Amino acid sequence: MRKDEQSFEALAVPHMQAIYRIARRLSGDQHEAEDLVQETYLKAHKAFARFELRKFGIRPWLLKILHNTFLNRHARLSRAPKAADQRALDQQHEGAELSSGPPELDYEQLDGEVRRAIEALAPDFRTVILLWATMEHSYQEIADIIGAPIGTVMSRLHRARQQLMSALEDYARSNRLTTKDAS
């Protein structure tokens, strides 16, 4: 079906939940994720006339807009001074004490330490690992979404995995998720 046969709403709205889930995983915050989705859809609606419907549909285009919006926000916020929210720190600490057992595939159910390791990744690495591991996108789809060559996707994915393995080495050992000697 051609793009001109369908409205923006008919093409884009069915993907809103998936876009929100990625926004939530990227930002780690419900309200920021909602803002990201709103900004993504606003930008997509404004640029819809320039959108070319391709094999993968509108979803990769929306994810690309989300990715760029997230990176721009992250860059802008990283330059601004930050104040620690004691209540959020306490809740995070309590959540880490309550979690137990090995991590599950559902990002929302991951152990606190695993989530923190993912969230500590640079935004480019975090985006690639989340799109690959939780949304099961192919390398080519990820390349289209982030606007980078497939080799860059492969490199970022490899580096993200290496950083996660390094960051979670003690966690894996203490939860007996590795066969490596603890020497």
Written description of the protein model:
- The protein is an all-alpha fold and 183 residues long.
- The protein folds into 2 domains: 1-79, Rna Polymerase Sigma Factor, Chain: A; 107-183, Orthogonal Bundle (Arc Repressor Mutant, subunit A), CATH 1.10.10.
- 66% of the residues lie in helices and 0% in strands.
- It has 10 helices and no strands.
- The protein is globular, with a radius of gyration of 18 Å.
- The chain starts with 7 loop residues before the first helix and ends in a 9-residue tail after the last helix.
User: What is the CATH topology of the largest domain?
Assistant: Rna Polymerase Sigma Factor, Chain: A
Gyration radius, rounded: 18 Å
> Under the CATH scheme, which architecture of the largest domain would be assigned?
Orthogonal Bundle
- Total count of helical runs of at least 4 residues: 10
Q: What is the distance, rounded to the nearest whole angstrom, between the alpha carbons of the first and last residues?
A: 60 Å
Secondary-structure-derived class:
mainly alpha
Q: β content, as a range?
A: under 5%
CATH class division of the largest domain: Mainly Alpha
Task: Please indicate the count of domains.
Answer: 2
Counted beta strands: 0
Largest sheet: none
Considering DSSP H and I runs of 4 or more, what fraction of the residues is helical?
Answer: 55-70%
> CATH superfamily assignment of the largest domain?
RNA polymerase sigma factor, region 2, helix turn helix motif
Low-confidence blocks of residues: 96-105
Mean pLDDT: 78
User: How are helices and strands ordered from N to C?
Assistant: HHHHHHHHHH
Question: What is the general shape?
Answer: globular
